[in-house]
């Protein structure tokens, strides 16, 4: 799969070998030459990338209340893990928002990509989507309880800037925008293109 990552992304070297395969995280090792000429073993983790979408329909923003068995309810934008069956990152974002909310969107733009931890090859992709329509009922996993809210730009910005843990990931976007129109005019993210294999 080809994908866009930040220009300063830290990637696992091609010569690294997988030392452990986990349910979500894989561990990779490689021999790294140091400045004095000696070598030592370096290690990084790898996990599937995740996607999140700020979906806009009828001048409202889609926000979900998401509850899972191991934690309580949280407010977030629809999203989740990129699967092996997804042909690209955008396909994953479209699948996740449709599964969790039943909405489909006809316009999409990638606006932010970041690597939360440089010791983990894992990227979070934030999209803005608009032209949304309710296509059908959500299709939830057995471990999900999700309800959908449609909030105004002002309500969402207030939640984001109040420090809500999961909405806060989009703080940079909402600090730079004051209206829904501003949000829709955020430029597309530019980074480096890489070819990757599944975690």
List the helices and strands and how they pair.
Layout: E1 2-5, E2 17-21, E3 26-33, E4 39-46, E5 50-57, E6 60-68, E7 71-76, E8 79-81, H1 89-101, E9 103-114, E10 120-121, E11 124-134, E12 145-151, H2 153-161, H3 171-175, H4 180-184, E13 192-195
Parallel strand pairs: 4-10, 5-11
Antiparallel strand pairs: 1-13, 2-3, 3-4, 5-6, 5-8, 6-7, 6-12, 9-11
Question: How would you describe this structure to a colleague?
Answer:
With 199 residues, this protein is of the alpha+beta class. The protein folds into two domains: 2-46, no CATH class; 50-195, Alpha-Beta Complex (Nucleoside Triphosphate Pyrophosphohydrolase). Helices cover 16% and strands 44% of the residues. The chain has four helices and 13 strands. The strands form three sheets. Strands 5, 6, 7, 8, 9, 11 and 12 form a seven-stranded mixed sheet that branches. Strands 2-3-4-10 form a four-stranded mixed sheet, with no helix packed on it. Strand 3 (26-33) and strand 4 form a beta hairpin. The mean pLDDT is 93.
Keyword list:
199 residues, alpha+beta, Nucleoside Triphosphate Pyrophosphohydrolase, four-stranded mixed beta sheet, 4 helices, 16% helix
Short description:
The chain has 199 residues and is an alpha+beta fold.
Number of strands: 13
Name the CATH superfamily classification of the largest domain: Nucleoside Triphosphate Pyrophosphohydrolase
Any idea what the shape is?
Answer: globular
**CATH architectural name of the largest domain:** Alpha-Beta Complex
The name of the CATH topology of the largest domain is Nucleoside Triphosphate Pyrophosphohydrolase
Proportion of strand residues: 35-45%
Main sheet summary: 7 strands, mixed
Distinct helical segment count: 4
Roughly how many Å apart are the termini?
11 Å
Work out the count of structural domains. Answer: 2
Whole-number mean pLDDT: 93
Parts with pLDDT < 50 across at least 5 consecutive residues? none
